[in-house]
Amino acid sequence: MSEREIPEQYLTGYAQLLADVAASGRRLTRAEIEARRALGERAAESGHGLRALVGAHLAATRAAWPGTPRTADSTLAAMHQAVDAFAEGYERAQRLAVRQEEAARREFIDDLLHGRSNLGRLAERAERFGLLLSHTHAVAVAQGPAAYDEGGPAARQVEQALIGRFGDRGVLLTTKEGRLLCVAPGDQDEVLLYFARQAHVATDGGLIAIGRAQPGPGGIRQSYEEALNSLELAERLQLDGPVLRAADLLVYPVLTRDRQAMADLVLNALGPLTDARGGAQPLLDTLTVYFDCGCVAAEAARRLSLSVRALTYRLERIHQLTGADPASPTHRYMLQTAVIGARLLDWPATGL
Q1: 205: alpha, beta or left, given left = phi > 0 and alpha = psi -120 to 50?
Q2: With contact defined as beta carbons under 8 Å apart, do 92 and 43 qualify?
Q3: I need a labelling partner for 199 at 20 to 30 A (CA). Which of 78, 80, 129, 278 fits?
Q4: With the CA atoms of 109, 215, 230 and 255 taken in that order, what torsion angle do they form, in degrees rounded to the nearest 10?
């Protein structure tokens, strides 16, 4: 904005102030300084640029410059006081505006992810942040070794990378409960994958879960919850990362939908392992690794730091205790499902 576009109201009394100072050599009073601060606040609230406002003050100073050299020093001092107070008021209004914007953003994010607001009102507010809730969206959630802070270095690094790569594509980046979130249109999977890579690098090993694309105003909340559930599953089952997709993990919620039935399966299939020397955990870990590596005994033994003979002995011991042979296709599915259920239910550490 040029100097000519600055309304005269923000220079009200400035020329007369300089003339009074030039005539008397006095300094500005507290009331005069506060008046300049108030003008600065109003100018900021009206959206005028500080550079143009300072330029307008300098132009007014030049126009009102005294003709005698002896008053120049007093005039310069008054100009310094006036412009400094004006800029202070301007900055105070800017800080208040930033705090209000941050508060509005946090409130919107909370309502968006937890469904605590009227959907029509929520859709109106979403447009301000570049989201069209009538469309399909997906959410990626990154969880790092340390918590993400809003405006922290990791969050800024990821945001700059996304903007540099994709520009403005209706993407919302925010933090929630120490995690970094990316909300993107459902047909832009490349944005979420790029976010996942950048978040993994920014936290030096974070885990990222991507919820399924869901339609409508409630779709973002649903996708967010799927991503959170995927992170929880990854922790319980020690799933390999760094990127997990909720769509690939749908079998696990199905298995735990009837918790009592799963608990019965775990106790019936694996309960006898508690009679082993050292308890059930070592043999349960053996089954977990054995199934995870495709029932290849040599690979399972290597991962467990055992000899193949020692691993074979453990599998035989499991067969003796449970009556189910891990190497038998007939028994394998039941045992593997029970092992997954034990990990989901934190058995045997937690009683069933």
Answers
A1: left
A2: no
A3: 129
A4: 140
CA distance 20 to 325: 101
* Cα 146-151-152 angle, rounded to 5 deg: 35
Give the list of residues 6+ apart from residue 97 with CB closer than 8 angstroms, or none: 44, 45
**How large is the C-alpha radius of gyration of the chain?**
33
Give the pLDDT mean for 282-308: 93
Is the distance from CB of 137 to CB of 214 less than 8 angstroms?
A: yes
pLDDT tens digits for range 125-175? 777 777 788 889 999 999 988 888 877 888 888 888 888 888 767 788 888
Q: How confident is the model at residue 4 (pLDDT cuts 50, 70, 90)?
A: very low
- What are the residues facing 19 on neighbouring strands? none
Q: What is the mean pLDDT of residues 44-63?
A: 83
pTM of structure: 0.64
Compute the residue count for the chain: 352
- Asked whether 175 and 181 are in contact (CB, 8 A), the reply is yes
Q: What is the dihedral of CA 237, 292, 138, 196, to 10 degrees?
A: 90
DSSP E strands in 235-333: the ranges are 243-245
176: left (phi over 0), alpha (psi -120 to 50) or beta: beta
- CA count, 13 A, side-chain hemisphere, 343: 23
CA distance 133 to 112: 10
Cα distance between residue 104 and residue 276, in whole Å:
58
Q: What pLDDT shows up at residue 2?
A: 42
- Rounded CA separation 132/222 (Å): 16
Q: Report pLDDT for 13.
A: 87
Confidence check: pLDDT of 305 > 90? yes
* Section 188-209 average pLDDT: 89
121 vs 136 pLDDT, higher one: 136
Q: Which of 179, 183, 175 is nearest to 150 (CA)?
A: 175
Tracing tokens 């400035």 back to the chain, one arrives at 14
CB 226 within 8 A of CB 302: no
Output the average pLDDT for the chain: 85
Residues 6+ apart with CB under 8 A from 34: 85
